[in-house]
Amino acid sequence: MASHILLVGIGGFCGAIVRYFFSRKLNSGKLPVGTLTVNLSGAFLLGAMAGANLSTTTTLLLGTGFLGAFTTFSTLKLEMAQLQLKKEHRLFILYTTITYGGGIALAYLGYWLGSFFR
Predict the structure, then answer these.
(1) pTM here?
(2) Which of 20, 23, 32, 54 is least crowded, fewest Cβ atoms below 10 Å from its Cβ?
């Protein structure tokens, strides 16, 4: 059990740092491209991991830990609220559509591709 917690912690530490890098580099305009990038790529990668049916150790380290910290639901919601408050309604709709539609599509694609590595 302690080893599982350590795996999640190590993965989470690394994932959070990488997400911070993406946010700092890409979230400079009206559309939060950094958050969009981490959430879409995270959906794809987690789908691929699920499709590949990886070991518990790998899933804890990379799935729960790294990708759990790399992707972000709370920042997404804050940025969506900020777009609405700034009356950026078109960007809000675009961001929401790409995030949810793209995330679901990429998770399915990742799962499908990952299943070839079982």
Answers:
(1) 0.95
(2) 20
